[in-house]
Write a structure and sequence with these properties.
This protein has helices at about 1-15, 90-95, 95-105, 135-145, 170-180, 200-215, 230-245, 275-280; strands at about 40-45, 65, 80, 85, 110-120, 155-160, 190-195, 220-230, 250-255. By secondary structure, it is an alpha/beta fold. The protein is globular, with a radius of gyration of 21 Å. Residues about 1-25 have low confidence and may be disordered.
């Protein structure tokens, strides 16, 4: 009985001396300042049946995400699956911490990245935004995102992903307000979206230069981008911006919208279309051209 009490006291002492990771601890690992080789280019998807179309020899893709906290695609280990807390509705938050913990534990020694709040600045009905005020987003961040930082040392948290709207209450203005409200949050990288004309490459680059000012040294993820125009215009857009993105040390990830029929998948839903191949096979090594002829 005395031995049992002694063991119990020892266990309690060990538990009392243990403490979670904090940013000041040596175990807390800051995010790298340069992108991981081969990880920049991503594929967003809703239908997991489309993901195998992109598992091709010489495909220059390193990560996938589905605007949710878990994936039903058992082959996602081929690339990094990045969970997202889309918004603050109960159906999104209920399983969030379990999904984040699962992602953290699947490859504990490797970095795990988490995305948060999809277009919280977008309140247009049916447009895909989570419609959250900066102050409410800061409260939710501390409740649902910040605890994930303590799950393991190499756990990196992304900001809410805002639109490229120039409105005073949207886009980078919203993001600035959020960062001010969430001043004690550990935000490791900044997430943004971009939609505009395929002929407006100059705006794409100038917008990201504006993002850099808000990021203030943090890595940048473009979790959605899609130019509008003819297939030829879009291919020319990609020909110019992909090498620029890959040469930008602070732009760690980007993802073209999306694995869906008529976008990166053919109209029949049976494989990549020409645009999908153009995006997937463009070389990541800076040498230009394609690893496989997309034609």
């Amino acid at each position: 009985m005395k031995l049992l009490k002694l063991l119990l006291a020892l266990c309690l002492a060990l538990l009392a001396s243990a403490s979670p990771l904090t940013p000041g601890d040596p175990e807390w690992i800051t995010p790298p300042m340069e992108a991981e080789p081969g990880r920049r280019r991503g594929i967003p998807y809703n239908n997991p049946d489309f993901i195998p179309y992109f598992y091709q020899d010489n495909a220059q893709v390193g990560w996938i995400y589905n605007w949710y906290s878990t994936t039903h695609d058992t082959r996602s280990a081929y690339w990094e699956y990045v969970p997202m807390l889309w918004g603050i509705r109960d159906d999104m938050t209920a399983n969030w911490l379990d999904g984040a913990r699962k992602a953290a534990n699947e490859q504990y020694d490797n970095p795990t990245h988490l995305l948060s709040f999809n277009e919280p600045d977008n309140c247009e009905h049916g447009a895909g935004g989570s419609c959250i005020s900066p102050s409410a987003a800061a409260i939710a961040w501390n409740q649902f995102m910040q605890p994930c930082k303590l799950m393991k040392p190499k756990m990196y948290l992304g900001s809410p992903a805002v639109t490229n709207s120039g409105s005073s209450t949207m886009g980078l203005s919203w993001l600035r307000s959020f960062l001010a409200a969430c001043h004690d949050c550990t935000i490791d990288f900044i997430c943004v979206h971009w939609y505009d004309s395929a002929t407006n490459v100059a705006y794409f680059k100038s917008y990201l230069n504006d993002v850099r000012k808000v990021a203030n040294g943090r890595p940048i993820w473009i979790t959605e981008f899609k130019p509008s125009g003819t297939d030829g215009e879009i291919r020319r857009f990609l020909d110019e911006v992909i090498p620029w993105l890959d040469a930008s040390k602070d732009i760690h990830r980007y993802a073209y919208f999306m694995a869906r029929e008529g976008l990166l998948v053919n109209d029949e839903g049976t494989g990549m279309n020409d645009l999908g191949k153009h995006y997937v096979y463009w070389r990541l090594d800076g040498k230009g051209g394609f690893t496989t002829d997309p034609a």
